[in-house]
Amino acid sequence: MRLNSALVQRTLSQFEAQAIPDNHPSMPDLNRTFGDHTFFIDADGLHIVEPAVPDEGGHETGQVVKVASWQDASRTSLIAHPPEPTDVVVELGGEPSGTSH
Predict the structure, then answer these.
(1) Does a structural domain hold residue 97?
(2) Residue 65 belongs to what H/E stretch?
(3) Domain enclosing residue 57, as ranges
(4) Residue 96, in any domain of the structure
(5) pLDDT band with cut points at 50, 70 and 90 for residue 98
(6) Count of structural domains, the chain
(7) How many C-beta atoms lie closer than 10 Å to residue 71's C-beta?
(8) The predicted structure's pLDDT at residue 96
(9) Euclidean distance between CA atoms 9 and 4, whole angstroms
């Protein structure tokens, strides 16, 4: 799922990571490997956001899915693996809940 800049900021307010910019040199390889997504990187690896079931208020949500893990403790190289849904679900529509930014 590709997110616009507002949704990237909303996601980052609920998920501690860094968004990889569209002009980053690795983007063509990432898109070729994982498809057209907005990519997020954190201490655990590389993540994307996939559409999820709307919350009880009917707001659009997205589930954070890990698609690659760090190869070693120095975090210099990633290893792709089958998508692993995380416990993180971000609210994409409406006001984000539980944020104090």
Answers:
(1) no
(2) strand 61-70
(3) 5-91
(4) no
(5) very low
(6) 1
(7) 12
(8) 45
(9) 9
